[in-house]
Amino acid sequence: MTGKLDLFDPAFRQDPYPFFAAHRAAGGLAPVDPIGAWLATRYDIVSEILRRPGDFSSTAMAGAALQVREGEDGPPPMIITLDPPDHDRLRALVNRGFTPRRIGASEPRLRAIADDLFTAVDAKLDTDGECDLMEALAIPFPLRVIAEMLGIEAERFEEFKRWSLAIVAVFGRIPDAAARATFEASIDALGEYLERKIEERRREPAEDLISVLVEKEEEDALTPDEVIGFCVLLLIAGNETTTNLVGTTAVALLENPAELEAVVDDPSLVPALVEEAVRYASPVQTLFRQATRDVEIAGQKIPEGAIVMPSYAAANRDPERFPDPERFDVRRNTQGHLGFGQGIHFCLGAGLARLEARVVFEELIPRLAGLRRRDARVDWSDSPFLRGPRSLPLVPR
Ligand code: HEM
């Protein structure tokens, strides 16, 4: 592989891993096209960038990755785009909504949502002889989970889904005029809806996440704008990520029948499967940081203001850290993988994502053993940031 890596090269999007290996072999920290951002592909370098938020600021994410309007009428800065101390204040407040106890308590609802969707999957396989796993399960499942967590009324769910999909559609992509217009209309409609909801929950708290978020904590509370910004972030950070995890794990299992058989025979391997899938497929492939001063890392000088892209995906396939990294192995030691990030921005939803994936795979795995992919080629998403199949039609074996 020669020449400078281009993140929008179709061959890269189809299979980025050989490109990462070549980049890593050449030092693991070098600018890539199209914007000349410094891509980091070595585990030790990626980890160091994530653990030095003072030198590598997250504010770059606001403009570069989240195509969210800044300024007066846009949502306020989101936690993922903030540095300390603003980040830490917000993180402490939103953590209350994601305690292990709260997440654990949601398991019966998650199972009920999954059962409902699997009934539809089975019916579709029966009547049509095939089923697109993304459309029938991987997309609606996390959306319904987040909608329920937020306390969206069942009759507003379809509307909520439309807004969410329109918002997610522009993340990390260069949207055309139509997608941008739909995005802006959706964010306005969702903002207005949430404003009313926040008011309601302030007056009359319920058992949902919005009620937790508006609660006062030692005289500090999220402002309505901060709650709205956080809810919009949840849609982006919590939906397509989990959708991609379900899709990529299914692809990996179908491509590695011995691993599928191992989990069919021993369902207690499901949590290990989920961890290995996050390492192997990294649903969030990379995000952004910006150098706050001239910094030196791994012997390279990065100038102040440079955009840096720590690749969780490439780090997770670094042979220096994970022996035989291209092998999908549900029994491997995945400790230290960077699929959920590291340091102060470590994924707030990791516990929820792990539970969602466990619930889905406990039901999906016995079915997968009797299914195969309809198409030889996987239709991968066109984003270099979030990677997963756009569709995954399955047919009986
Ligand atoms: C497989 C699914 C998921 C993956 C792979 C994933 C991955 C990540 C990664 C890599 C980061 C770190 C970003 C950084 O370094 O700047 C992150 C942060 C975050 N994630 Fe997740 N995520 C997933 C699911 C979720 C879910 C389900 C939620 C919530 C419902 C969520 C909410 C967040 C939030 C709020 C942050 C920002 C935390 C902060 O800035 O302090 N994620 N996620």
Question: Could you explain how this protein is built, in words?
Answer:
It is a single chain. The chain has 397 residues and is α+β, with helices and mostly antiparallel strands. The protein has one domain (10-396): Cytochrome P450 (Cytochrome p450, Orthogonal Bundle), CATH 1.10.630.10. The protein has helices at 10-14, 17-25, 43-50, 60-64, 86-95, 100-105, 107-128, 133-138, 140-150, 157-168, 177-203, 209-214, 224-238, 240-255, 257-265, 270-281, 312-315, 350-368, and strands at 29-32, 37-40, 56-57, 131-132, 289-291, 295-297, 300-302, 307-310, 371-373, 379-380, 389-391, 393-396. The strands form four sheets. The protein has a five-stranded mixed beta sheet with strand order 1-2-8-5-3. The protein has a three-stranded antiparallel beta sheet with strand order 4-12-9. It has a two-stranded antiparallel sheet with strand order 6-7. Strand 10 (379-380) and strand 11 form a beta hairpin. Helix 9 packs antiparallel against helix 13, helix 11 crosses helix 13 (224-238) and helix 16 packs across helix 18 (350-368). The longest helix has 27 residues, at 177-203. The relative contact order is 0.18. Residues 50, 58, 79-80, 91, 146, 233-234, 237-238, 241-242, 245, 278, 283-284, 287, 312, 339-341, 345, 347-349, 352-353 line the site of protoporphyrin IX containing FE (HEM).
Helix fraction bin: 40-55%
**CATH superfamily annotation:** Cytochrome P450
Tally of contiguous helical segments: 18
Cross-sheet strand order for the largest sheet: 1-2-8-5-3
Task: Give the low-confidence spans.
Answer: none
Distance between the termini: 37 Å
As for the number of domains, it is 1
Rg from Cα: 21 Å
Average pLDDT number: 91
The fold-level CATH name is Cytochrome p450
CATH top level label:
Mainly Alpha
Q: What is the SS-derived class? A: alpha+beta
Major sheet: 5 strands, mixed
CATH architecture: Orthogonal Bundle
